[in-house]
Structure formats: structure tokens, C-alpha cells
Amino acid sequence: MEPKIAISLCLLGIDCNYAGGNSLCEKAVEIFKSGRGVPVCPEQLGGLPTPRIPAEIQGDRVINRMGEDVTIQFRKGAEEAVRLARLAGCTGALLKSNSPSCGVGQIYDGTFTGTLIDGDGLFAIELKKLGIEVETEEG
Fold first, then answer.
1. Which of 14, 69, 94, 137 has its Cα between 20 and 30 A from that of 39?
2. Residue ranges of the domains in the chain?
3. Distance separating alpha carbons of residues 20 and 138, to the nearest angstrom
4. Among the residues of the chain, which ranges form H helices?
């Protein structure tokens, strides 16, 4: 049995990102078609709508562009997505780069200026704690 891979739902061409669009990635589609992909959208699992106001990590909080604290939704979504990944037996994850949920290695800096800093999204952090290998569609 081949290992299962958690995949950010937007990478499969599903319109679930903050703007109501997607980030179609052929690598993600191929993994899914092989039967190994487990699609998840932590932000939707946390109860956030699509489309939604963009949010970025500021310190230990997640704040949207309107100044609203959406940390609870982002944490809940990360927890639920991790639960799905564990139930499916995922040993890896292919996640959306720079996202406050799914970013790996770099995320936006919280100023809504498009500036990237070193860091991981909340879902990526939780996966790493479990020893699940994470990468983005960018490699």
C-alpha cells in the first residue's frame, strides 16, 4: 500500500482559497488520481467562508485584513485537517505555499504587503510535530 499524502484542496483546482479561486497544481492532481491524495482545506474546516477576507499570521495570532482575530478558526481548521490526515494514515503533505494555514518555510509577514518571512502555517506546524513530511507545490 502506497503512503497517503494530505493535499491542500485548492491545489486540486477546487475554488476554496480566500479569493474564491484555486491554485491548480498538476502534481497534486496526479497524486489524487493515483488514490494516494487526501484533500483538505483547513480554513474551510475551521468554519471560514469562501471567499473570505485575507488573513496573515501576526505573532501568535491570525488576523484578517479588517483587523479581526480569526485565530480560533485557523487553529480549529488545523486540528480538523490533522485529524483527517491521521485517520487516512498520511505520511506526507503537499500544501499551498505562503498560506497562514499551509505555508511551509515561508509565510506572509502580517502586514498585507506581500512580504514573505521565514515561518510555517498553522496546519504545517501541526503536521511537522507529528513527523509528517511537508512540502509546497513550489518544491
1. 69
2. 4-136
3. 21
4. 26-33, 42-45, 71-88, 122-129
139 within 8 A of 94, measured Cβ to Cβ: no
CA–CA separation, 7 and 93 (whole Å): 6
CB–CB of 72/48 below 8 Å? Answer: no
Give residue 109's pLDDT: 98
Report cis status (omega within 30 of 0) of the bond before 3.
no
Global pTM exceeds 0.85: yes
Element (H, E) at 43: helix 42-45
Per the CB < 8 A criterion, the answer to whether 109 and 56 are in contact is yes
The residue among 2, 3, 7, 1 whose CA lies nearest residue 93 is 7
Residue 63: strand, helix, or coil: strand
Q: Is 6 left (phi over 0), alpha (psi -120 to 50) or beta?
A: beta
For 59, phi then psi, to 5°, come to: 70, -120
Distance CA 9, CA 15 (A): 8
